Amino acid sequence: MKLLDEIEVFLLDLDGTVYLGGTPIGPMPATLKRLRSMGKRLVFLTNNSSKTEEEYREKLTRMGLFGAGDLVYTSAMATISYLKERYAGAKVYLVATDAVREEFRRGGIALSDDGPDVCVLAYDTTLTFAKIKRLDFFLRQGKPFLATHPDDVCPTPYGAMPDVGSFLAMFERSSGRTASVIGKPYSYMGEAISRLTGTKKGAICMVGDRMHTDIRFANNCGMRSVLVLSGETTRETVGNFPDRPDLILDDFNQIFGD
Ligand SMILES: [Mg+2]
């Protein structure tokens, strides 16, 4: 298959693409192993900023999906990189889980709950009213406002739950402020991955199940794309979106075409 020959790096979305609710999709461990043996590099790419790189690596390793040479890249990691580039030395009010706050600190970001220069909203599954009130207060002062990703909802085995996009809508109502968003479908994360892997965007392929984040992201970045029908999108709903993937597969195990 031509696409497979041209691609050096596959960016793999997680839920709906390599696993579904914690179970690998079909023979995914063997599929990924075969790609590695062909010299393809694999980067697990997620907008979900509620967990750290390490937590995702452990989760993927438990499922037999993570292999030598693979990388995990989250929207939180992209946000750390963005802060260092655009707001070097700034103090950050970060709304995030404790583990992700620690990941930002380890990444060299100075956190401040009192006098920040910049505010960042990650997917904080431990969000409290005290944190909401404090962020809203800083936003009203006009502090720059970043969000790790725009997803309105996050899939769970029990149905969708509110994600960062829903909280952004709340802050827009309360403070009148909108955030600059880092994760998919915006192109910053694509630039970061291209630099991290030393690979031209035309030799990178995004594989995902969501048209408005994964496939839009690939098109925004000038990357190739594979839509998999193992998650959110069906053959019937593909046409509802303006973007077109290079390839549509029932699931990613079909990538070899045999
Ligand atoms: Mg997905």
Q: What is the assigned CATH homologous superfamily of the largest domain? A: HAD superfamily/HAD-like
The secondary-structure element order is HEEEHEHEHEHEEHEEEHEHEHEE
Number of strands: 15
Main sheet, how many strands, which sense, barrel? 6 strands, parallel
Tally the helices: what do you get? 9
Name the helicity range: 25-40%
CATH topology of the largest domain: Rossmann fold
Main β-sheet, spatial strand arrangement: 5-4-1-13-14-15
Taking the alpha carbons of the first and last residues, their distance comes to 10 Å
**Poorly predicted ranges (pLDDT <50, ≥5 residues)?**
none
Shape, per Cα inertia axes: globular
Under CATH at level 1, the class of the largest domain stands as Alpha Beta
In CATH terms, what is the architecture of the largest domain?
A: 3-Layer(aba) Sandwich
Count up the domains: 2
Structural class by sheet pairing and helices: alpha/beta
Task: Supply Rg.
Answer: 18 Å
Please tell me the overall pLDDT. 96
Give the DSSP E fraction (strand runs of 2 or more residues): 15-25%
Supply database-style keywords.
258 residues, alpha/beta, Rossmann fold, 2 domains, six-stranded parallel β-sheet, five-stranded parallel β-sheet, 15 strands, 35% helix, globular, binds magnesium ion
